[in-house]
Write a structure and sequence with these properties.
Elements: H1 2-9, E1 14-23, E2 31-40, H2 44-55, H3 62-65, H4 69-83, E3 90-96, H5 104-121, E4 132-136, H6 141-157, E5 165-169, H7 178-193, E6 206-210
Parallel strand pairs: 1-4, 3-6, 4-5
Antiparallel strand pairs: 1-2, 2-3
Helix pairs in contact: 2-4, 5-6
Length: about 210
């Protein structure tokens, strides 16, 4: 498996899982955010098994789950699992608000750049450098190429080191992508609805940084 090989070769035995959330409606305050949840590759199997146990299924999407009381309860349980004292995971969230005249692609790029730099340098809550990033794969080839281009340009410009690698995967194939999906939803709901039930259990391990 490609991802499995990448995990085994990850510098510092660390990996970050990335996902996004955004609001582009003209009648609301717009924003774009990208979340990265960092874990040790040695913890991947245990963490993945724990996620399946909490969710009780091999499918998860936080936004869908929040539509029902039982789904919200399960989402809170997942947040409590991520934020548990026994874990060592941390999350960094880059937020661009408002999106601005340049549009969603420019905001996404700004967020990915901010997250990638924080991971590469080990800044803030990250503490130690992370050079392997696994991003939820978008639908079209153009979108996937756009995300690869961001990292490639950053490497060429020296904004991140040459060891940094971006891989793209579906949550169907890697359940650990449920974690940044959860974090993105938690931060989003706090921004749009002032809800803290999802963010509360993970508040201590999440750092939100604003994009210029």
């Amino acid at each position: 498996m490609r991802l499995g090989d990448a995990y085994r070769r990850a510098p510092n035995s660390r990996v970050a899982f990335l996902d996004e959330s955004f609001e582009v409606a003209e009648d609301r305050t717009t924003f774009y955010l990208v979340s990265a949840v960092v874990t040790d590759t040695t913890e991947i199997d245990v963490l993945r098994d724990g996620l399946i146990d909490v969710v009780g299924d091999h499918y998860w999407h936080t936004t869908e789950s929040l539509l029902t009381p039982s789904g919200r309860k399960r989402a809170i349980e997942l947040a409590e699992y991520l934020g548990h004292d026994d874990g060592r995971e941390v999350a960094v969230v880059a937020c661009k608000a408002p999106i601005g005249e340049a549009g969603g692609d420019a905001a996404r790029q700004a967020c990915i750049e901010q997250v990638a730099q924080a991971l590469c340098t080990g800044a803030g809550i990250v503490q130690d450098p992370v050079h392997l990033m696994v991003l939820e794969q978008r639908e079209t080839l153009h979108e996937r190429s756009f995300d690869n281009m961001i990292i490639s340009k950053m490497r060429k410009a020296g904004a991140i080191c040459r060891h940094c690698q971006l891989m793209q995967a579906s949550p169907r194939d890697e359940s650990l992508l449920w974690l940044p999906d959860l974090v993105s939803s938690a931060v989003r709901r706090q921004m749009t609805h002032q809800e803290d039930d999802l963010l509360g259990p993970i508040f201590e391990i999440v750092e939100v940084i604003d994009c210029p």
